[in-house]
Amino acid sequence: MGTLDRNVGMKDVEESCTDSTNKLDAGALFVLKSRGSWIHCGYHLTTAIVATALLSLPFAFASLGWAAGVVCLILETVVSFYSYNLISHVLEHHAQIGHRQLRFRDMANDILGSGWGRYYVGPIQFAVCFGTVIGSILLAGQSLKAIYLIAYPDGTIKLYVFIIIFGAFSLVLAQMPSFHSLRHVNLVSVVLCLAYSLCATVGSIYAGHSDKALPRDYSILGSSTQRTFGVFNAISIIAATFGNGIVPEIQATALAPVTGKMFKGLGLCYAIVAVTYFSVAISGYWAFGNQSKSSIISNFVVDGDNLAPMWLIYLSNIFPLLQLFAIATVYLQPTNDLWNAYQWMQPRVSSQPATSFHGFCCGRQQLPRQLQLQPCSLSSETSMQS
């Protein structure tokens, strides 16, 4: 009898989940397909968190010093892991009672009340994701130009040309049909973040032992006011490197039942965080002290002299550039979902079943994907030309 009741209960939950899924709009049905495993969640989380911003950690340490820098980094690691794990537990709870939430705005509507998702959480998430896409395009254009200037120091090609090039390639990746379809792209992204973190660490150690290295000074520069603002700036930099505004969307890619999958994915992600963040922060600050720049790779060249081998400098610029393709595509997924569903105007319910190929190929689904990155590229080019 106990087994029978349990089976009946599980059947009711599955039917409830099915009913909830059938009520989703076309954006969620096609962008947020739930087919992945915990390791795929780990790939997505790592791409969303472990990004090129970690190369600025030595710069943050320069305003904090050794003790405060290490303590802040450890605290942010613990706090962010706890926060993301807490969100995943809330999502798991709602999935177990038959009301699986796939997006941040769904959580806001259920927890805070109707309207909070559409008018408060949704716009904030959209701004964060869309801004990340634009920032990735800008940073990639700068990386491309840096590589170009290393090869051709007297080159005259303008920055906006490199931004256009990156935007054109990103338009291709933007056609990936769903978040789950990015799992292989994000696996490559994981390898790339490990690769450029290794390059940054090795390059810092090499530069630190170079005869051309500047004298190391770990004192905190500036007046008391400058130091105070420097501390706040450093804390914000460290906090930003752990930012992730798409945790529910990532968990939505996991195949039901979702219990425990996100915790394993977070474990994989934060194992990579521990390896990359601490190695880059400690080695970079050790090598350059309070002269650490906003990107530690910039410290490898001082007054035209290379403090690291040329091939290592090339790789240190190429690997982050390649990962930016994955980052931009990942943060496009919530905005694709939003555009596809027309969430701002009114909730739309897909007239096609979840497995319908026609539903995905309709103009309302494809047109936003085709046009999504064009305003991003245009905004980036305009801001850089000003």
Automatic annotation (TrEMBL):
Pfam families: Aa_trans. The keyword Metal-binding does not apply. The chain crosses the membrane at residues 41-60, 66-87, 126-151, 157-174, 186-208, 228-247, 268-288, 308-332. Keywords: Amino-acid transport, Membrane, Transmembrane, Transmembrane helix, Transport. It comes from the Eukaryota. Residues 35-340 form the Amino acid transporter transmembrane domain. GO terms for cellular component: membrane. It is found in: Membrane. One of its GO terms (biological process) is amino acid transport. PANTHER family: OS05G0424000 PROTEIN-RELATED. This is Amino acid transporter transmembrane domain-containing protein.
